[in-house]
Structure formats: structure tokens, C-alpha cells
Amino acid sequence: MQDMNYYYDFSGQKFGYPLSLSINGFSRSVFSRQSSLEISYILKGEYEAVTTEFSCSLKEREMVVIAPDEIHMICKKQEKEGVILTIHVDFSRMTNAMAGDRKKAFQTVVCSLEKNQEYYIQLKRKIGELLSMLMEGKNNLYQMNAIMMELVFIASSQQSFSVEELPLHSDYHENYMKAIRYIDAHYSEELSLADVANQLSFSLSYTSKLLKRYTGIPFVKYLAYVRIRASLEALLEGRNSIEQIASDCGMPNSKAYTIAFKELYGILPSTYRKRFQQNLMYGKEKQDQKMTLDEEQKKLLYHLVEESQISLYEEKDLKIWKRDKEILCKIDLEGKQVKIKTEPDGTLMIQIF
Fold first, then answer.
1. Given pLDDT bands bounded at 50, 70 and 90, which one contains residue 50?
2. Cα(70)–Cα(52) distance, integer angstroms
3. Whole-number CA gyration radius for the chain
């Protein structure tokens, strides 16, 4: 169930980009598992995080870092309103050399001012930088890449994983890439494991083990996931029926498509379409449509943005901080706030509200 009052989604997967960020009030009562690193931060209400290792409550401004491939569930503890910020970094969209061995590099951990404080503060600051970038409408891909990889670095800081531990380039990996490229080119057709094996002159057994070794899941499930991900653009456009989209991407029928989709994303494809419709890359007039945060969302997120900035001086009614190359000042005068910031030419800009 989604809370649409605060719903927002920056879905990098639509562009083949590893980073996604969403705000919603979902309550997922089924276990899920994905290849991405997940950071869930509670903006409002109370949630429960359940993994194979532990179960714990998450209150406002607490977070949980979910390691890749960890089976988990995050759900609201009560029927009251809840809002959660979720960030995913999908390593399947990176090369092995960029992603490293994600099984060794991360661990699932709860973070708050009481638990793993240093880790918590570092993650919050970096999340604040990401949100600040989105709020200001900046579209610098390299800046976003830098923030994303710093998030990954901080999240992996409790584990050590060196360059020397990267898997050496091998015939196995070369053959795996051949198999993946063939699946990517023919996923919309009637495709079996035997077709892949025959095309590449591999044995059926070798092909099965090769794909399972590198994807972590059986061929049939991997193929279904490839088809589902390939169908997202058509699903978001909203022009074709679920039945037609299922057929176009190679799924046997709409029922199989729906089952695979829910397993991968945790919601029905029809629900996904409704929730994500507002973030289509192009509007009806084929004009670029920005993914923007509304005022209610910004209110919930503002403390994260503020905490990502460097505080120079702070007392009850006065705060001075540094953001990038700017020095900003906030004064509270009898209920009115005054904001002062430096312009690039050195002049001062004063706002009273």
C-alpha cells in the first residue's frame, strides 16, 4: 500500500543508471531480495525491518542499510501515516570491476544516533548532498556519480575489500558475457537455456552453471527479470495493455509477467504504472519533464540537506554554514526568519519570511 501524499521517484533504472531514489508510504508485508545496495531512512512514522538475522523497529530519522542479496522486509508497524526514503544502488548495472565482490563488501546494519553513530552521520550527510542536488534541479551526471560512489564507499566502510581481490579476467567471465549479450539480444523471442548453449557451442550443464555462478539465480528467473526490466519504458508510457507489454517483452502471458514483476519490484505492474506515471521522461507534448520534489516532500527532507552542509557557527536564533563555495546565514527574529547568502560576485542576498 502506498501513501501518495508524499510520493516521489527518481528511477535511474529507466535510463540504465544504477542509482534510484524514492519517497513513499509503502507497507511491504512480503520478503524481497535484490542485487542492489538499499538504504532506507524513516522520514515519518515507525517501521519494522526484518531480515534472516534480526528484527528491529525503526523510528523517525533512523535508517537501515540492507546488503545486496539480503532477504528482507520493511513494513509499517501501525496503520498511522508513515513515509520512508529509499535509495538503491544497483550493482547489476555496473561492471564487475566497478562493483567488486558485493557479497564481501557490505553488511546489513541499523543506524541511528545510538547505533553506529559515526556511520549514521556520514551516510546522512551524503544523502543530504544527493537530495540537495535533486532539489536544486542540478543535472550534472558526474556529480551524481561521485555522490553515488561515495555513498557506496561509506556503506562498505565496515568491510574491507581491495582491488587485488577483484576476480581475475578469465574465460569463464568471457563466456558469461557472451551468454548475457545473446540473452540481451534475443530476450523478446521464445528463448530457452538450450538455445543459448547451442548458439555459443556450450554444453547445457556448463551454460546453466555459468549463469547461476554470475547471476546468482537460475536461467529462467534471470530471463524473466531481463524481460521485466526491458518492459519498464513501455509500461510507464501507458499506451499498451499489460497483456500486450508481456507479449512484446517475451513473457508467455500476463499472469507470468505479473508474478515475475511483483517478485522483482514488490508491487503489481498496474500499480507501478500508476505510481511512476508522473515521472515519464517526456510529457504529452514530447517536452523534457523534470523530476521535481513538491513543498511537502521538501519539508520532510530539509533536515537532511541542512545536515549535509558544514556548520561554521550555531546558537538558538542564529546559524552560519558553508555550502559548496557559499557562506549562508539564517537568523530567527521574533518568529520571522532572515536568510543571508553570498552571491558569486560577492554581494549579499537577504530574504525575510
1. confident
2. 8
3. 23
The C-alpha cell 562498505 sits at 156
Given strand 55-58, what is the order of strands in its sheet?
Answer: 55-58, 47-51, 72-76
Contact 210, 202 (CB under 8 A): yes
The answer to whether the CB of 78 falls within 8 A of the CB of 113 is: no
In this predicted model, what pLDDT tens digit does every residue of 112-127 receive, in sequence order? 988 888 889 889 989 9
pLDDT confidence tier of residue 341, bands split at 50, 70 and 90: low
pTM attached to this predicted model? 0.58
**Angle at CA 187, nearest 5°, toward 181 and 192?**
95
Interior CA angle at 322 toward 321 and 323, to 5°? 125
- Supply the DSSP string of 54-117, one letter for each residue: -EEEE-TT-EEEEPTT--EEEEESSSS--EEEEEEEEGGGS-HHHH--HHHH---EEESSSSSH
